[in-house]
């Protein structure tokens, strides 16, 4: 970490360690922020897009149909930012396979599935436990247990120095060194107090600041990026800005990854909160708009399929399940319908005949099918 990179406007201070390297200790939030017309307009657009998505989530006849596919897409994209290479199809197929299936990318899929568990755990706990250090430890435990990072003390804040940099970096050569453990504990206490501040800042700006500060403190040995992105969704849900957990920023961050890391670092080195907040607000605007378009497309498909199958009760009963997971097997259909395999096969044949699903392959345990339009609507890249 080069001390010459840090200006007098840096958002924290450099602290020398006994070992000779420098670490960065951020100042408590909030910083001073000047609002100009450009920032006010960006905030207005993001607020409007988020409010429209939240309103859509409350108006749709069954918004829960969107939660499963949206959360799984977020799990894939957020994990991809950290180098995991499982696709959404990998995850969805794995969910309908038997427990003995062992794909080559088993470790990657397990990490993504843990992300889904962490997200679901956080959403279940929010009504009874405020967003807090306790909750993020629980989320981290769900995220990291039983996978490649499980040696990084799941659910526990680090007790040693960590760093951010390429493989092989040391604290002397790393691009960024978070605060030492004692200072980290104090920073986390200040960060938690900031989380609970109300009526001080607009929610979206407070959320943007909260995210940077968490990534700067880097309180875990592994998994900080994924927890930090989950916190955005949890924060907005706790503040009542979303009626359903439908907004996730990983698609935007993945599409603009270099800007993301550069702007995080500029907050630290130059105190450039303005550029970061504009980036964050743009991400909210684009992601909320895209999520709304996806939701409308999915519900258009649902109504179309249901209308065409109104006189085919078994096939109709499978439709909503295709929206939670667009892959289907005869075994899954039989279980969902509570019917025999021949009856389930007949129901799938109806879906095939109507071109709602097509056979896409065979496993050792049987055929599997996919509803292409649903998968494409869920997995469409952010424009």
TrEMBL record:
<feature type="active site">
    <location>
        <position position="218"/>
    </location>
</feature>
<dbReference type="InterPro" id="IPR025758">
    <property type="entry name" value="Fic/DOC_N"/>
</dbReference>
<dbReference type="InterPro" id="IPR003812">
    <property type="entry name" value="Fido"/>
</dbReference>
<dbReference type="GO" id="GO:0005524">
    <property type="term" value="F:ATP binding"/>
</dbReference>
<dbReference type="InterPro" id="IPR040198">
    <property type="entry name" value="Fido_containing"/>
</dbReference>
<feature type="binding site">
    <location>
        <position position="82"/>
    </location>
    <ligand>
        <name>ATP</name>
    </ligand>
</feature>
<protein>
    <submittedName>
        <fullName>Fic family protein</fullName>
    </submittedName>
</protein>
<feature type="domain" description="Fido">
    <location>
        <begin position="131"/>
        <end position="282"/>
    </location>
</feature>
<dbReference type="Pfam" id="PF13784">
    <property type="entry name" value="Fic_N"/>
</dbReference>
<dbReference type="InterPro" id="IPR036597">
    <property type="entry name" value="Fido-like_dom_sf"/>
</dbReference>
<feature type="binding site">
    <location>
        <begin position="222"/>
        <end position="229"/>
    </location>
    <ligand>
        <name>ATP</name>
    </ligand>
</feature>
<keyword id="KW-0547">Nucleotide-binding</keyword>
<dbReference type="InterPro" id="IPR026287">
    <property type="entry name" value="SoFic-like"/>
</dbReference>
<feature type="binding site">
    <location>
        <position position="260"/>
    </location>
    <ligand>
        <name>ATP</name>
    </ligand>
</feature>
<feature type="binding site">
    <location>
        <position position="218"/>
    </location>
    <ligand>
        <name>ATP</name>
    </ligand>
</feature>
<feature type="binding site">
    <location>
        <begin position="260"/>
        <end position="261"/>
    </location>
    <ligand>
        <name>ATP</name>
    </ligand>
</feature>
<dbReference type="Pfam" id="PF02661">
    <property type="entry name" value="Fic"/>
</dbReference>
<keyword id="KW-0067">ATP-binding</keyword>
<feature type="binding site">
    <location>
        <begin position="223"/>
        <end position="229"/>
    </location>
    <ligand>
        <name>ATP</name>
    </ligand>
</feature>
């Amino acid at each position: 970490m080069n001390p010459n990179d840090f200006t007098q406007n840096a958002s924290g201070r450099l602290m020398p360690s006994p070992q000779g390297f420098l670490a960065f200790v951020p100042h408590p939030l909030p910083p001073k922020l000047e609002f100009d017309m450009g920032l006010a307009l960006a905030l207005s657009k993001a607020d409007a897009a988020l409010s429209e998505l939240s309103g859509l989530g409350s108006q749709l006849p069954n918004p829960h149909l969107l939660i499963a596919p949206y959360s799984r897409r977020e799990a894939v994209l957020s994990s991809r930012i950290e180098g995991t290479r499982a696709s959404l199809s990998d995850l969805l197929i794995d969910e309908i396979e038997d427990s003995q299936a062992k794909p080559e990318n088993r470790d990657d899929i397990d990490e993504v599935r843990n992300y889904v568990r962490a997200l679901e755990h956080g959403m279940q706990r929010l009504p009874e436990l405020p967003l807090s250090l306790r909750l993020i430890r629980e989320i981290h435990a769900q995220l990291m247990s039983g996978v490649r990072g499980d040696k990084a003390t799941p659910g526990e804040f680090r007790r040693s120095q960590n760093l951010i940099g390429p493989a092989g970096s040391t604290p002397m050569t790393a691009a960024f060194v978070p605060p030492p453990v004692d200072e980290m504990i104090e920073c986390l206490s200040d960060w938690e107090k900031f989380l609970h501040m109300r009526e001080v800042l607009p929610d979206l700006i407070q959320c943007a600041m909260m995210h940077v500060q968490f990534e700067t403190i880097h309180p875990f040995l592994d998994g900080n990026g994924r927890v930090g992105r989950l916190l955005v969704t949890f924060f907005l849900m706790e503040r009542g800005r979303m009626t359903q957990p439908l907004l996730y920023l990983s698609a935007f961050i993945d599409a603009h990854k270099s800007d993301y890391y550069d702007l995080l670092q500029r907050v630290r080195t130059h105190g450039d909160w303005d550029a970061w907040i504009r980036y964050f607000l743009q991400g909210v605007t684009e992601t909320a708009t895209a999520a709304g378009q996806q939701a409308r497309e999915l519900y258009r498909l649902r109504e179309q399929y249901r209308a065409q199958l109104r006189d085919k009760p078994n096939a109709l009963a499978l439709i909503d399940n295709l929206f939670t997971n667009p892959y289907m097997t005869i075994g899954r259909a039989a279980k969902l319908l509570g019917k025999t395999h021949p009856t389930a096969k007949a129901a799938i044949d109806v879906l095939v005949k109507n071109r709602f699903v097509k056979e896409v392959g065979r496993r050792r345990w049987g055929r599997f099918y996919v509803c292409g339009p649903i998968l494409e609507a869920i997995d469409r890249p952010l424009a």
